[in-house]
Task: inverse folding
DNA sequence: GACGCACTACCTTTCAGTCGGTAGGCAAGG
DNA sequence: CCTTGCCTACCGACTGAAAGGTAGTGCGTC
């Protein structure tokens, strides 16, 4: 039994991800959650408050997912693939990325929300940079990739693919992009046992 | 002296690219162009009519640019870089992609506009697939890239990079992504005269 | 009895869209 | 040459609906 506030955030997230920030109203949200419009203002006095809570909650949700991926495997390529799976999941539900939706509305976005969205991207880029540099070190990522540059590229690629494949090729189209991306990261030779400092207990990514 | 209709399309394009489709009103557009709100309805009876004209004009503008790039060089990598430059130009003007902005609002987009946006992406993917396969043939693109897959990836990457770098790193951040992308396309050895099987008469695509 | 939460009722502003009308251009016809 | 008629372009004034937001009330629970 999630409390009302959580339900509001959950439903508002869906609305933004399918219609954009300016594209939904308190009336829409009220109907989705099953309370009255005025009651939403009790939890989120202004739409900006709601938007801020949305991007914060979305960011935390992703932080947890990144953390889980990190713990589940030390294989750089698998980590990236598990990261990509997060986007693919959105695509299957026919929902875009909340941050991307908000980012396209820069011009009308309250500044604090903009900051939240920027932080969202920054954290992902930083996390991927760590994944890549560690992957290079343990031989699971090509050694000619630049972690900083490729981290940016990966986020950009996945955000773009989600955006585009929502109306083009669906999951199949997304996977095309994904295999092209994989090719640019995979080491030409599989990591030899020398480089491999994988712990004894084999783990697997959930992808 | 561009006529009013053209001015309306030009200004509306800016509005959508900075604020999204739902994020601007006829009142905003009227002010930007310097005519009255009612007069806009004379040219575009409904907002859907306007949106349709917008994506059509935007598509044509890009078609011309792609055509010019095609004619200017036969080097696959250079073609891709010139294509990327189109996005970079938007970034410098602090404007996102019109199609991307509309794509994030799928849930409220009139169907005909959705179709227009989907076509926009499809044409770009198709054009890039030709660029890549021809580039492979003349040795200016790595021979292990799959034109169909990489074409999708390139559009996705550039769309995503534009989206993200508008609030993150600006042109500098974009160029990071771009150099990572370049690395995945460039042949490991520069094209030798042996591989080069370019016909004497240069060809051109109409696209 | 104070607080949390949802409600009814209402506010102001803005939204897309409509209406009737004006001003000017242009071509046909007497 | 001058009227008549039709056209495009624009306008002020308006409409109903929907936007975000407010005020005050009731009602159950610590």
Result:
């Amino acid at each position: 039994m999630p409390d009302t506030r959580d339900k509001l955030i959950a439903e508002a997230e869906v609305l933004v991800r399918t219609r954009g920030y300016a594209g939904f109203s308190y009336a829409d949200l009220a109907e989705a959650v099953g309370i009255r419009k005025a009651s939403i203002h009790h939890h989120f006095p202004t739409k900006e408050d709601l938007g801020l809570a949305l991007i914060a909650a979305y960011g935390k949700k992703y932080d947890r997912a990144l953390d889980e991926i990190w713990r589940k495997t030390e294989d750089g390529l698998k980590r990236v693939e598990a990261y990509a799976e997060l986007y693919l999941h959105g695509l299957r539900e026919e929902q875009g990325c909340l941050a991307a939706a908000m980012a396209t509305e820069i011009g009308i976005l309250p500044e604090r929300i903009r900051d939240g969205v920027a932080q969202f991207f920054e954290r992902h880029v930083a996390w991927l940079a760590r994944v890549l540099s560690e992957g290079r070190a343990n031989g699971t990522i090509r050694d000619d990739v630049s972690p900083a540059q490729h981290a940016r590229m990966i986020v950009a690629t996945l955000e773009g693919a989600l955006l585009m494949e929502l109306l083009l090729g669906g999951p199949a189209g997304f996977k095309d992009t994904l295999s092209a991306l994989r090719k640019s990261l995979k080491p030409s030779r599989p990591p030899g046992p020398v480089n491999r400092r994988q712990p004894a207990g084999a783990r697997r990514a959930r992808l």
Observations:
- The mean pLDDT of chain A is 91.
- Chain A touches chain B through 52 residues (CB under 8 Å).
